[in-house]
Amino acid sequence: MKRIKIPRLFNPKKVLAATARRASAASAGMDFDGIPEPNMKLSRALLIVLLLHVVAVSDEQAKTPSASGKTYIVKKGDNPVAIAKKLKVSYNDLIALNHIDDPRKLQIGQKLLVPKTTSSKTTSAKPSNQKKSKK
Known about the structure:
The chain has 135 residues and is mostly helical. The protein has a domain of 52 residues: Membrane-bound Lytic Murein Transglycosylase D, Chain A (Roll). The protein contains 4 helices and 2 strands, in the order H-H-E-H-H-E.
């Protein structure tokens, strides 16, 4: 039977020495209360970044389209563009609502949530060439 050699991550002598130093500092009664916190500016910056992240995530969730309560089951030959046209919904809303990373990986029988249709006008793929009549 072949033995597998596992590499050591820490030198045992160094680990024991570091542990001993911490223990001796604690037993010597060293007081760190009088030392100001050196990373105060870093802590504030970290707090600001965290706050901005929370705001950005909540904004992103607010932009996520809501479901209409209906579902669509993917059939053979379906793709997200055809499904969006068939259901008369936005392609981007369909993709975002169903968290589809790669539209080419839809599977037959997969259930998709149908987004609510917006009351605003949606732009069609075909340009309108109709001229307005003058009165």
